[in-house]
Amino acid sequence: MKVFLDGRIMDSQQAVISPFDHGFLYGLGLFETMRVYSGHIALLERHYNRLRQAAEELGIDVTMTREELRFAILETLSANQLHDAYVRVDLTAGDKGLGPYAGVYDEPSWLIFAKPVPEFPPALYETGKKLQVLKRPRNSPEGEWRFKSHHYMNNRFGKMEIGANPDVEGLFLTENGCLAEGIVSNLFFISEGVIYTPDIKTGILPGTRREFVMELAEAHGYTVREGWYYIERLMVADEVFITNAIQEIVPIHTVNEKRIGEGTIGTITRQLLELYRKHIV
Known about the structure:
Elements: E1 2-5, E2 8-11, H1 22-25, E3 29-37, E4 40-41, H2 44-58, H3 66-79, E5 85-92, E6 109-116, H4 123-126, E7 129-133, H5 153-162, E8 168-173, E9 179-182, E10 186-191, E11 194-198, H6 208-219, E12 224-227, H7 231-235, E13 239-244, E14 248-255, E15 258-259, H8 267-279
Parallel strand pairs: 7-8, 7-14, 11-12
Antiparallel strand pairs: 1-2, 1-6, 3-4, 3-5, 5-6, 8-9, 10-11, 10-13, 13-14, 14-15
């Protein structure tokens, strides 16, 4: 695999960062997971803006413009001969020696890698996944809102709890028992034609696909509501689905042991998936 590191394309085995990089020592790093369709980097502007806003709050200089980042991603794709890809962009704080640092991180590192998008079975979009409520609650966000950061321990605990089954997604609740989000996804449910999703203030990640699906649904006449909802609302929903950048929109057939609807993709979820694929590029 060829990767991009600080302006250069190189073999992944040659890519190194300083052992004193604060992204490694203290988790002061951010990342974005992107999907590329036939060379088009989907929702790049939204990814870049989220990364930039988080970096500004952490005092990390964003040393590439959006267009420079686009070019770096395209370079990485070309080096790996990829047109449809999973792309990850990491921005780490950089080397400021040992100990906490109060100043601006003005020499961060950029790491980009790309790999083929997995071949998802048709059943993923017809039947979907099981959603398992996790015992461990969602932790508090790093700042005023949750960053997509290297601080991933809460997600690690969630993944350990559900195991390696790719057909199961773990669902975090807040400390007071309200719906939050999946380990690697945002959550939606539908009742009587209205689409609901947990509020950002519950401490969830402001997902790029969450925002995109909300806008898409409203533009096509659906009512979308954000709020604080308990698990009981999910259990009686007509449809449930999750979103993320790589798998797009995935229906949920079961929550814990409770079947949702007919146990297959619902009418509105199917419409949203069709709209998503029509408009994402």
